[in-house]
Amino acid sequence: MTLKFYAHPFSSYCQKVLIALYENAIPFEWRRVDEPGAMEELAERWPLKRFPVLVDEGRTVAEASIIIEHLQLHHPGPVRLIPEEPRAALEVRALDRFFDNYVSTPQQKIVFNQLRPEDKRDPQGVAEARAMLETAYGWLDGVMANREWAAGGDFTLADCAAAPFLFYADWTHAIDARFAHVRAYRQRLLARPSFARAVDEARPFRPNFPLGAPDRD
Length: 217
Ligand SMILES: N[C@@H](CCC(=O)N[C@@H](CS)C(=O)NCC(=O)O)C(=O)O
Fold this sequence. Notes:
By secondary structure, the protein is of the alpha+beta class. The chain is built from 8 helices and 4 strands. The protein has a 4-stranded mixed beta sheet with strand order 2-1-3-4, with helices on both faces. α1 packs parallel to α3 (about 65-75), α4 (about 85-115) packs antiparallel against α5 and α5 crosses α7. The radius of gyration is 17 Å and the shape is globular. The structure holds glutathione (GSH). Glutathione (GSH) binds near residues 11, 12, 13, 50 and 63. InterPro entries: Glutathione-S-Trfase_C-like, Glutathione-S-Trfase_C_sf, Glutathione_S-Trfase, Glutathione_S-Trfase_N, GST_C, Thioredoxin-like_sf. One of its GO terms (molecular function) is transferase activity. This is Glutathione S-transferase.
């Protein structure tokens, strides 16, 4: 039975899973959340209404990292995104948590703040989010000084997270030139065919970026 993917091409968490799907050429059927009735179907399956959600033979799988773990278990391909060796797998999952919690979460906070009416905005929250991004870039710069991919030599789940999160984080809170290793890593991610495809598919939606998309990437 075909995998059904509730998602939107411009969403960072959806791109995280798209990278995994494209890396292993896993066939799936799109259910775009902006299609009529799709959000209602999604809410039936996952009342939290966050996307992406994958439906596999009637089973609902939510949360981008868990979807990627599910794909590896049930639809393995040539690119192993979570290493078999438990210690290596722990490092991958630790980096994945880093990108979710300390890059994507503050980045989304800044974007969601922008979507609020002006009198409901939270300047202190935004300042804290920007400070967290600076700290995260600094820590990551040290990690990436001698790594090709986030967890070492192989492209993994952690890079699936890093690619869209650093992509949008740089639009939201520019990665300063002093974080040269992070900037170089972001460029490597952009050159990875699976992510390049996701970026291209999302191009038509750039005018929707609430802070204004830069004319690059
Ligand atoms: N923890 C979730 C986060 C997913 C998420 O935040 N998705 C965004 C799109 S990028 C969303 O559903 N936004 C709709 C909303 O917040 O109502 C995951 O890892 O998949």
